[in-house]
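On clarity, I found the account of how folds are encoded harder to follow than it need be. Since the whole study asks how a given chain folds, the encoding of that fold should be made plain. For illustration, here is how one protein appears when written out as sequence plus C-alpha cells:
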Amino acid sequence: MLVVMSHWSYIALLLLCVAATLQSIESSKYASKPFSRHDKWTQTFNGEYIPIQFYNAMRSAEASKQSLQNQLRNFLEQLQKNLTTSTLLSLIDNTQQNTEHQLTKLYELSVFFYTAADVARFFARDSEIFFEIAKNSSYTLLLQLRQIPATQPTAIKLLLTNYFAEMEFFHVMFSEVIDEALEYTQNILFATQKTFTYYADVQRFILQNWKFKCDIGCCKEYMEFSQLYSSQIFKCAAGHGLDVAFDVFAMTELTSKYVMRQLEFRIQRLFNCFYFGNYEIRCKFLQNAERDFELLFSKIEELEIFFDIKIKNGRVSALRVRRQAQIEEGVLTGVKSYDACIPQDFPHSQMHQSLKRCFYNINEY
C-alpha cells in the first residue's frame, strides 16, 4: 500500500512540474512580446518624431542668412576702395582707359545692389518656409499623440483629454509667436530688397540713358556722388532694422528647435507610459498638464519679451493687427518703406548743377 501511494505521489509531482514549466514558457512568450493592441502603435513610434523637413528647412534658412550677412559685410570698405579717386588720378594720362575703368566700377556698384537684393529675397523665402514648417511640425507632433490607443481606463482617458487640450493650446500660442517673427522679418527683408533694387535700377538707368560725358572732372564728381549716396542708402537699408531681423530669426530658430525636442520628449514619455504600463508610476505627469507644459510656455513668453525689447513697438502682437488693417486698405507694410531710405526726388534734387552738366540727356526715371 505504501509503495502504491509513493508511486501516485511521484506521478502527481511530475505533473505539477510539467504544468509549471508550460506556464513559465507561455508567460515568457507574452512577456517578450507587447500586447497586440500596441503593435500598430509601436511600429509608428520609432523614437524619431520631428519631421526631417524641419531640420532641412532650418539648415536652408541658416545658410541663406549667412549668405546675406557675408554679402553685406565690409561693403563700405569695398565702396571706398572701388570708388576712390586715387585710381582716377593715376590714369589721368590715358582718358580712354580711365573712362572704361570708372564706368566698369560704377556698373559693378549697381551689380552689387542687385545681388544683395536677390540674396535678401532668398533669405526671406527660406526663412518663411522654415517658420511655416516649424508651425506644421508642431501640429504633426500633436497628431502623433493622437495615435495613442483609445483602449485605456476611463480615468486615464480623462487625463489624456486634458493633456491633449493643453498641448493644443500650446500649439496655438507657438504658432502665433512664429507668425510674429515671420511678420517682422518678412517686412524688413522685403523693404531691404526693394531699396537695393530701386537704387540699382536708378544707377543703371543713369549710366545707360543720361549719356555721361566721362571726362576726368565728371568722373571724379559722379564717383564722389555715388560713393556718398551708396553709403547713405546702404546704411539705412542694411542698418538697425536688418540687424534686428537677423536677431529675431536666430532667437526664433533656437526656440523652435528647443520646442520640437521638448515635444518629442513628451511623445516618447507618453509612449513609454502606455507601452510599459504602470500608469501610477510612469504617467504621473498626466495628472497636472499645466505644470508639465509650464516650461514650454515660459519659453514662448521669453521669446515675446525678446521681441518687445528688440522691436520696441509695444506688444508685438499689435503688428498683426496693423498688417491686417493695411491689407484691407490695399497697402502692405514694407511695400513703400524703401522711400524712407531713398531721398525724395532722387537723384535730381541731390545733384549739383555742375554734376548735371556732365550728362547730355537728363530725364526722369
